[in-house]
Write a structure and sequence with these properties.
Shape: globular
Helix content: 55-70%
CATH architecture: Orthogonal Bundle
CATH topology: Hypothetical protein af1432
Number of domains: 1
Number of strands: 0
Radius of gyration: 15 Å
Distance between the termini: 28 Å
Oligomer: single chain
Number of helices: 11
Length: about 180
């Protein structure tokens, strides 16, 4: 499956524009991480793009989100490694911590930090990613009441990739800035 096919498939199941933008931001972050780590950029990008394909189908239910994705993506012959990473990005559906591979950690941390970065941009007067500094992101990491639904522990899984939080935040911010026009930020 190529990116265009994946985006079409995503839009078949996801109609909320903010969820689509989140998926595109996650794709950008995953591609940047794959480049940094010298791994498969296309595979990681597709995982980022498709990771929330079942979000509307499951109404965001943490107990089933990710599991429905397995069914949808299996029917479309998506790479099993992508399906596995997507299934594991939401450990609540599994009930236990089962992420074990760099791909798993990257998807979970990468898609999660996009929410923190977006929330940070939205508190600036111009609401632009270009106004956000890495230091602002890492500062907001410590403010548990800011973007309270963003799981900081999941973001910190970046360290399991050998990437410290400051560098991870910079990689993620740069990736999102590169597609800021598509994100409307």
């Amino acid at each position: 499956m190529n990116r265009e096919q994946a985006l079409d498939l995503l839009k078949t199941y996801v109609h909320n524009q903010n969820t689509i933008k989140h998926s595109m931001a996650s794709e950008a972050v995953l591609r940047a991480l794959a480049t940094k780590l010298g791994t498969d950029v296309e595979k990681w990008g597709l995982a980022g793009l498709l990771h929330d394909i079942d979000y509307e189908t499951t109404s965001g239910n943490a107990k089933t989100h990710g599991l429905e994705s397995v069914k949808i993506l299996s029917e479309h012959n998506v790479n099993p490694e992508i399906i596995e990473a997507i299934k594991l990005h939401n450990e609540l559906a599994e009930g236990v911590s089962v992420r074990s591979k760099p791909f798993h950690f990257a998807l979970a941390a990468g898609e999660t930090i996009t929410g923190l970065i977006t929330a940070t941009a939205l508190v600036y007067p111009d609401k632009k990613l270009s106004s956000v500094k890495t230091k602002s992101i890492t500062k907001r990491m410590k403010e548990r009441s800011f973007a309270a639904s963003v799981n900081r522990d999941v973001i910190m899984e970046c360290e399991k990739l050998g990437i410290p939080i400051d560098e991870f935040a910079q990689i993620s911010l740069t990736a999102m800035c590169n597609i800021s026009d598509q994100l409307g930020l």
